[in-house]
Amino acid sequence: MSSPEVKISPLQSPVSSVWGVGDERAKLLARLEIFTVEDLLLHKPRRYEDRRKFLPIRDLKLKEAATVRGIIIASGVKHFKRGTRAMFECVFDDGTARLHCRWWQAQPWMEDWYAVGREFLIFGKLDDDKKPRTFTHPETEFVEPGDDEFIHVNRIVPVHPLTDGLTARVMRSLIWHALEKFETQIEEPPIKLDLKIFPPRANAVRMIHFPQELTDVEIARQRLAMDEFVALQFQIQSRRKKFEAISKALPCGGDNRLMKPFLAELGFKLTEAQTKVLREIRADMGGAHPMRRLLQGDVGSGKTAVAACSALMALESGFNVALMAPTEILAEQHFRNFSKWFEPLGVKVELQTGSKKADGRWQMADGKHAPTSNSQLPSAIFIGTHALFAAGFDLPKLGLVIIDEQHKFGVTQREALVRKGNYPHLLVMTATPIPRTLGLTLYGDLDVSVIDELPGGRGAIKTFVRTTEKLPKVFDFIREKISGGRQAYIVYPRVEVADTDKDIKAVTKEFENVQRALTPFKIGLLHGRIKPTEKENVMAGFRANKIQVLVATSLIEVGVDVPNATVMLIENAEHFGLAQLHQLRGRIGRGAHESFCILISDAKNPEAQARLKILEETNDGFKIAEADLKLRGPGELLGQQQSGAMQLRFGNLVEDLNLIRQARELVAKSF
Fold it and tell me: Are 438 and 653 within 8 A, CB to CB?
């Protein structure tokens, strides 16, 4: 029996199916990633020009685009000296004045087309220095009696993204011809929208290119964006449904035998937000399907304590836990905290990084089989970097995977660690709040928990933006704070200065300048090229206040928790992203003392100044994340790897939260 034929939509036909697209034009369109008829129909205009208002020729003004209507009273080819190109020129008259129109590289068809007595609509701009009035290479439309259908003038005209060799006029014509032939083939998607709210898809495609009114453009965009969001949500929710169908959760709800003594000795009471999140996590870990949860919490909100409680649930249930961090500094910070918390409870805490390996009893003997003695070992938590998912490292009885600062990892790395076990529970955490639109799309297959309050007893953080000329006063301020017993961070964007970036300061070069400025205080140096043992010594000295000032790169944005540090100075602040600056600022304000973040920037760029002003005005990470998305867009925020999965032509991840929510609800009802 032969398999049923798959029906291919005519819209998937090669773009050469459109009148006017030959081999050469197809190659030009391919540069714009237009390969099919559908690609051409969904080639979104970048702007629109209203060419419906006619001006009398006598009222034309320099440098102002305008449409006029006139009859040709003279036309012909002008030849210049031998070897130079010919020019075609015609003269239009509308009864108020005359307009000369010129096209270089005269074509044979022009004399017949622009014949004396014919009437045209003409769109263009007056040449600056030409007398008489002259348009060079204007767009024209022949006026036939009774013809009210124009493509290039007498309408709101789309201007599309182009490439060399394709003019706006040609692109517009190709899309017009594509609509004439294929508009009736544009079908509604499988999950249908309410046509009382949205126009039919075919209408929307025509409206996006050739709107009757400018208000039609947004109506059409929203309809086409909604189709994109529905398709994206279907993909996300289908993946989640498939996962739940093939996986069975490990019973990791716990029995509180470790949790109760842990909370009693923790030294502080969990906030209501932390407690609420833990209830959500316990329900997941005792449920029918493996937990897939994203935990968002602003810098210093107490995510680590929640992670510890989640780990104890799995450990109480007889399973092991893996906690992955993006840097050795953060992994070692977690190792110290969890060792202090868990070892009194009898829980083994292991560290696995590029420079430090876990206890040999836990490692695979041959890369395939774990030692049999593992089954007799007590449950343990493994803390490390990407070394945790190295091929030669085994994680038996893995019940829970925790990934800290998840935005530092790709999806592939996350999945590699999860595959170490048999559908373990997964908790991913971030201190970089995710804008709601991205939370519903990029992380749409994860349930989301938010810690939306900070623990009490924290000192306020004040942020100031200053120019380089204020640095001497800033260093005086730092000296004053250090003299009072506090500590400080000074952060630079580079390790070394590149020849092309001489205006950007580097940590290795500035270290000596800082030492001179802050003598006799002890200054430490930290960056990615320092050996692990040296990094560890510097961090230990800073934690113990044997080092008063830590001069570093952004390496310290995660994993450094020194409550006594109350000053953060960031030079060349405009070279850091908003979220990264917020993370760096989160290294201070972790104790009871008032803290100060000083951003040094001489940036004249209005966008850079706006970004820094946002930090000066708010400490709310969620507001900062939304502002960062608006200023830089999702591509910049997510990076190529993650944003590549969401190539939206019409959807706007900055402003379409309402559409995304509607799409999510619509798809959920379809299952």
Answer: yes
